[in-house]
């Protein structure tokens, strides 16, 4: 049995990644099972490939959740300044969240697995 998605690693809803993580888990598991004939090794490879990203997304979600739980004055400042930061980031071409939202799983790639 393999547990994936929120059952394996519930992320804060503020990260917007709950369903994405489940789909990424499923696709990565499929790649590992397809490319590695030994099931135990395939499952170990799946775990290794997902661990760092999952930990980073969970950590990001926890941080943004705690930011949203701030007091009244902090919420006001954040609400007023966030649009400015977002406009500046868009203008400067900052891709600070590409690691989360532009993640790709290479289905066709077979290298690096099963070795």
Could you provide a short overview of the structure?
The chain has helices spanning 18-35, 39-68, 72-92, 98-101. With 115 residues, the protein is mainly α.
Question: Mind explaining what this structure looks like?
Answer:
This protein is 63% helix and 0% strand. The chain has one domain (5-93). The mean pLDDT is 80. The chain is mostly helical. It comes from Streptomyces guryensis. It holds the Pfam family FAD_binding_3. InterPro entries: FAD-bd (IPR002938), FAD-dep_Monooxygenase_BioMet (IPR050493), FAD/NAD-bd_sf (IPR036188). Residues 2-59 form the FAD-binding domain.
- For the record, give the distance between the C-alpha atoms at the N and C termini, rounded to a whole number: 24 Å
Q: Helices and strands, in N-to-C order?
A: HHHH
Please identify the structural class as seen in this structure.
mainly alpha
Approximately how much helix is present in the residues?
Answer: 55-70%
Quick one: how many beta strands? 0
Q: Average the pLDDT over all residues and give the rounded result.
A: 80
Supply the number of structural domains: 1
Q: What is the radius of gyration?
A: 18 Å
Biggest beta-sheet profile: none
Overall outline: elongated
Strand content: under 5%
Residue stretches low in confidence (pLDDT < 50, at least 5 long) are: none
- DSSP helix count? 4
Domain FAD-binding: 2-59
Pfam families: FAD_binding_3 (PF01494)
Organism: Streptomyces guryensis
InterPro entries: FAD-bd, FAD-dep_Monooxygenase_BioMet, FAD/NAD-bd_sf
